[in-house]
């Protein structure tokens, strides 16, 4: 299948279908399985008012708990999460380069070459980030089973406005990407499939977003994930 070209969903928010190779997806699945075992294991996060998230989460680099980052997982077992690996930071920089770099080349249906003019990634004022200076230091890995969902929320616990790099593996999902002001409309629904990249920064860095639905049975078992969806998001905490 020929991957679709990158598409800017909102200013600074870019969807790159089929970005990860199958080998890269398998590597990430293996890494996520190892992180899920600890030192701070994967868990259903308990929210301050007693609610329990339907997704399961494990972190690397920094531990996220509602609504802050800590070095020690006081809400789980008191241990420090696994280190953020250099190879993952390299992947994040490549993702930023491919999402915000020159317009991507795509193969046309007849085998010819076309240049995508659907978006023109810009230097978004003070929020601009050069890929080679991007230094993500934490990743949240969420596992969705067939019933899990994620309500509309902002990623705003970081002290940095550097872009968020999001990778999807396994079952496809309906990803709802909104605006920075409200959980409601306007928003755009995007189907994220296994291997897709989604980057949001600049004016869309603090846009509300969520996952209303996962489509069970749509993933490729060749990734090493036989069911469910993995979503890995890299962020820059701005913490020391």
UniProtKB/TrEMBL annotation:
GO biological process: methylation; oxidative RNA demethylation
Cofactor: record remark: Binds 1 Fe(2+) ion per subunit.
Iron in keyword set: yes
Family annotation (Gene3D superfamilies): Alpha-ketoglutarate-dependent dioxygenase AlkB-like
PROSITE patterns: FE2OG_OXY
Keyword Iron: yes
Any single Gene Ontology cellular-component annotation: cytoplasm
InterPro entries in the record: Alkb, AlkB-like, AlkB-like_sf, Oxoglu/Fe-dep_dioxygenase_dom
Residues that coordinate or bind Fe cation: 153, 155, 209
SUPFAM superfamilies found in the cross-reference section: Clavaminate synthase-like
Keywords: Dioxygenase, Iron, Metal-binding, Methyltransferase, Oxidoreductase, Transferase
Name of protein: Alkylated DNA repair protein (DNA oxidative demethylase)
Annotated source species: Nonomuraea fuscirosea
């Amino acid at each position: 299948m020929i991957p679709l070209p990158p598409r800017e969903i909102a200013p600074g928010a870019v969807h790159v279908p089929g970005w990860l190779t199958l080998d890269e997806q398998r590597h990430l699945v293996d890494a996520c399985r190892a992180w899920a075992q600890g030192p701070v294991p994967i868990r259903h996060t308990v929210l301050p008012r007693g609610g329990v998230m339907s997704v399961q989460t494990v972190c690397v680099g920094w531990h996220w708990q509602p609504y802050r980052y800590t070095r020690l997982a006081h809400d789980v077992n008191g241990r420090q999460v696994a280190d953020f690996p250099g190879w993952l930071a390299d992947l994040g920089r490549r993702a930023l380069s491919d999402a915000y770099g020159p317009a991507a080349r795509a193969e046309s249906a007849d085998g010819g070459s076309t240049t995508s003019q659907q978006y023109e990634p810009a230097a978004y004022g003070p929020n601009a980030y050069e890929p080679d200076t991007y230094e993500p230091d934490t990743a949240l890995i969420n596992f969705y089973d067939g019933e899990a969902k994620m309500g509309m929320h902002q990623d705003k616990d970081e002290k940095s406005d550097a872009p968020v790099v999001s990778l999807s593996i396994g079952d496809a999902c309906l990803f709802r990407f909104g605006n920075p002001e409200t959980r409601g409309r306007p928003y755009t629904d995007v189907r994220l499939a296994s291997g897709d990249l989604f980057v949001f920064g600049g004016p869309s860095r603090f846009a509300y977003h969520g996952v209303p639905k996962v489509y069970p049975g749509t993933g490729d078992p060749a990734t090493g994930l036989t069911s469910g969806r993995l979503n890995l998001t890299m962020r820059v905490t701005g913490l020391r």
